[in-house]
Amino acid sequence: MGLFDFLKSKSKALTPNKLDLGWMQTDMHSHLIPGIDDGSKSLEESLEMISRLKDFGVKKIVTTPHIMSEFYKNTPEIILGGLKKVKEALQKESIDIEINAAAEYYLDEFFLEKVRSGEPLLTVYKNHVLVETGFVTKPLMLVEIFFEMEMNGYKPILAHPERYQYLAQDKKLLHEMIDRDIYFQLNLLSLTGFYSRHVQAFAELLVKENRIKYVGTDTHNHRYLDALESLTQSKYYDKIQEISIFNTYL
């Protein structure tokens, strides 16, 4: 092999493979309805990000705006109204991809009251509801809320569990959730080190132990999608594709 061939081969090896998320089929965690949470800021930005997800091989999107009593006071009406505008814009621009909406509910006393009062929740799939907590401290009502959701016919999906410090540090709680069959949704970016090395390590453990039921991009802006392109360099990129996930049913 000549020097030119060697350098060409080395350059090719250092070039990351093109990201393919076709195996996932549906991205079920993102923030693509403009102006209603900390995600997309404009309809133009939403269309750009949706186009990029389509280029990554995503065939369907279930976007999940935050519903948080103190910060993002969204309602099903606000979310579905925003979804309608996004769908109309996609059709106008001939961007052919299916998109629906659910929500990412923050677990607090206000959410608990919604559940107890029988207020209909936006679901990702059938009775599956995406929920989140703060990142540092375990919510006092965590187990109680999960119990109330289950009693009211809902299946909790815990968004990005790998990002919760309290869960990584409390193995008893982790296994209690596993025993209760709480579904875990992994952020694919966690496998790239995007959030931190500690988050990456916990994410890899959950994948290794086959604890993941859903995966998502949790796309908020283009910075997320730029970072996501490095997923192909993760040692868990192939392994995550071998897991049986609910995304393929959506």
Protein model, in words:
This protein has 250 residues and is of the alpha/beta class. It has a single domain, classed as Metal-dependent hydrolases (TIM Barrel), CATH 3.20.20. The chain is 39% helix and 14% strand. The protein has helices spanning 3-14, 43-55, 76-92, 109-116, 142-151, 165-169, 171-179, 197-208, 222-228, 237-241, and strands at residues 26-27, 60-63, 66-67, 98-101, 104-106, 128-132, 155-159, 183-187, 212-216. The longest helix has 17 residues, at 76-92. The protein is globular, with a radius of gyration of 19 Å.
The CATH homologous superfamily: Metal-dependent hydrolases
- What topology, given as strand order, has the largest sheet? 3-5-6-7-8-9
Radius of gyration: 19 Å
Mean pLDDT: 94
What is the rounded distance between the termini? Answer: 49 Å
Indicate the proportion of strand residues: 5-15%
Q: Helix segment count?
A: 10
Which topology does CATH recognise? TIM Barrel
The largest β sheet comes out as: 6 strands, parallel
Shape descriptor = globular
Q: Give the strand tally.
A: 9
Architecture (CATH level 2) name = Alpha-Beta Barrel
Features:
single chain, 250 residues, alpha/beta, TIM Barrel, six-stranded parallel β-sheet, 10 helices, 39% helix, globular, Pol/histidinol_Pase-like
